[in-house]
Specification:
This is PRC-barrel domain-containing protein. Pfam families: PRC. With about 180 residues, this protein is of the alpha+beta class. The chain has two domains: about 100 residues, SH3 type barrels (Roll), CATH 2.30.30.240; about 50 residues. The chain has a six-stranded mixed beta sheet with strand order 4-3-2-1-6-5. Strand 5 and strand 6 form a beta hairpin. The longest helix is centred in the last third of the chain and has 49 residues. It starts with a helix and ends with a helix.
């Protein structure tokens, strides 16, 4: 009899946490400004199973303009041991913000890939870092060269237009 009351009491307590936790996890409207400190260590879930935690945010990767480019997710670890750190690029995740019962803001990250696709994402290591920096450098060089080329074409076009206008003005003076 005592065991039955203990089981019922435990079940009721667990149910109250589930209900209060669910009520507290109403997603908020976008904030417009976020603290990296509150996003680090946020729990990560797959969009296909919002109940199963697959990891936590380990790092936030920024570009030269300080825009977020990727998140580093520690996945598969037990008590902080083992697992692997993977890179999830923008467009493959979304951030959900909730207000907890105590008024604090909490975040969770929803990754929009399957479990198999998550396993195939690149591992965050020195090799990945070197390759990503090289790709970013190459993209910057291509952009810079394209911008210089566009500027040169614009300047040459403006010079030709000025010469044409000048010729027409002089031609009009001779008549």
């Amino acid at each position: 009899m005592r065991k039955t009351f203990l089981n019922i009491g435990t079940t009721l307590i667990a149910a109250s946490f589930a209900v209060s936790g669910h009520a507290a996890e109403e997603p908020q409207e976008p904030q417009g400004l976020y603290s990296a400190d509150t996003i680090l260590d946020a729990d990560v879930y797959l969009s296909s199973n919002l109940e199963e935690r697959v990891g936590e945010v380990e790092d936030i990767l920024l570009d030269d303009d300080m825009r977020v480019q990727s998140l580093v997710i520690e996945s598969g670890s037990t008590l902080g041991l083992g697992g692997r750190e993977i890179v999830v690029d923008n467009g493959n995740y979304r951030l959900e913000t909730v207000t907890e019962n105590d008024g604090d803001t909490a975040h969770r990250v929803i990754v929009d890939v399957s479990a198999a696709e998550l396993d195939e994402m690149p591992e965050y290591n020195a090799s990945w870092w070197d390759e990503a920096r090289q790709r970013a450098r190459e993209a910057w060089e291509a952009t810079r060269e394209g911008a210089e080329s566009a500027w040169q074409r614009t300047r040459e076009g403006a010079e030709r237009a000025a010469e044409t206008i000048d010729e027409r003005i002089r031609g009009g003076d001779e008549q």
